Fold these 2 entries.
Entry 1:
Amino acid sequence: MTKEIYLTGDRPTGKLHIGHYVGSLKNRVVMQNSGDYDPFVMIADTQAFTDNARDPKKIRDSLTEVALDYLAVGLDPKKTTIFVQSQIKGLFELTSYYMNLVTVARLQRNPTVKAEIQQKSFGESIPAGFFTYPVSQAADITIFRAKKVPVGDDQEPMIEQTRELVRSFNNAYHTDILVEPEGVFPEKGLGRIPGIDGDAKMSKSLGNAIYLSDDADTVAAKVKQMYTDPKHVAVDDPGHVEGNVVFTYLDIFDPDTKQVADLKAQYTHGGLGDMKLKKYLIEVLESELKPIRERRIAFAQDIPAILQMLKDGSDHANEIAEATMKEIRQAIGVNYFAGLK
Ligand code: TRP
């Protein structure tokens, strides 16, 4: 029986942080180890270029960093095809064909792209590649005939647009070779974890992230800066749990839910100091992050092996992609020279 393919990816624009970990990486490892899937994980460098075209060094450097993050959390190249988007030439070709099956008006309605354009303050200078990246993302998903796409909630519109493109393509070329994918979304509360400053989103650009590669002292220092309750000044003051990042993180990372409930009760009542609470969170985080960090350091000893792993993964991914492209070219009718030498 052929296993269901899942595909997902990350833009290599920096190292991955604990938001990526709880929102996505952890679940990928579970899906990988379930044995129920044929997993593909892509480092989306082509997509990273859509808003970083003038900074190829950042993308190149991040390629190995992201690969190390993957291996550190337990993605295993024996079970998961880990590959690099730009190396799959069929993706550029398929993107070109898709581009004619979507309207500018439809692209303008994509809420995630809309929000990102605002955030990045492109003004009137939106790169065309950025504006159309949902089309290229549809190619990523469909060239591998992925059924499941585990992504963050913000990627829902991309999946929807992919499904539309699949229908348009199959309809335009009277075929059924393309598969409509389904998104797999994070459990409630894990899709978006706040930054250490209390901002709703942990992100590199906001400088409020804890990275999987941070050493123990850095993690401790970041927890000590963490936003708690500004009105909780003296230890005996009653404190607020809601919006208090330390508690948000304990809810996510501490398996001992009874302990967390007790701490919340104590904090709300008064008598639990921020320092003591933060020391506890540091321990909780360390028990999860230490093994990841140690594996990351071990893998980082041999960068050529990491590049070889990415090349092997890309070679394998290319074979799968080419098989689909053959059918695509045939369906469209651009296989003019089939059978000729
Ligand atoms: N847009 C995704 C992100 O920013 C990355 C990505 C690119 C992706 N291609 C993909 C995710 C295909 C899932 C499937 O996180």
Entry 2:
Amino acid sequence: MSMERDGKYLKYHGLLCPKETHSEDSLKYFENFNTRDDDVIAITYPKSGTIWMQEILPLILSGGNLTAVHTVPNWDRVPWMEETRAPLVLDSKPSPRAMVSHMPYHLMPASFFSSQAKVIYVARNPKDVLVSSFYFHQMASFLDDPGTFEQFLDKFLAGEVLFGKWTDHVKSWRQNNLGDRILFVTYEEMVKDLRGALKRLLCFLGREMSEESLEQVVSHCTFNQMKTNTMSNFSLIPRNIMDHQRSPFLRKGVTGDWKNHLSPDQEEKFNDVIKEEMAGVDTQFPWDEE
Ligand code: A3P
């Protein structure tokens, strides 16, 4: 395992992971992870909709049963495969398990590649990811202070942030050998039409749900509803670790907030880097036309 320690972070194969939530043991557990064929894994670059998937997946896999989302905190309900809770809760979880991970494709454990586990890759406009992450770094004491927005933007573009460059993450998962084991969704399509996105997920996972249950799931998974769910809004975490008065974890839940944060010069700089790094990737994102 390639790992270094650096202030608040561990460096795992060059990727920054917060020590508050990752340990050498948890990363070793991840490397040796025992994937089951019916596992469902939502993959995200941080701030792209991870906790949203932690709400959605158990509902889809249970036909809309709200018990888990009302009684189990998100980090144990749909654990991060690489984080410290994983070894404590994942082995004893009954199948089908739902999990999340921020890892790039090539770092997934060997058992994942030989399994039939399914993946839902959630991508979000990197400019909104940047803004969301900037506020997250202000409220989470286990992350470095982001500095000014301009400084944080430069770090983001250089990949000196959690889990490295956004472009590397997205590209790694686009260039996969998973065939019909992977579904791509975007944060933007979920904001625009959550019901439609849930139907795509149901179809991909081979599940069904009555219209009535689907309506209930849609209304449970809205931003405002999740904000009030203590099992999902991180209000159980002590304030010295996450300070929601500085910025709530469920902050705005909208698309295009970057327009309130990036100057024209910053936008140009951002566009130039992303465009160059995404050159040759045959993917159309909803935000490409903006
Ligand atoms: P904002 O900071 O832009 O509000 P992650 O879970 O990957 O860390 O991503 C967090 C982002 O997803 C935050 O974005 C958060 O508000 C948003 N989010 C979480 N649940 C959501 C929901 N139900 N609807 C819309 N956005 C949601």
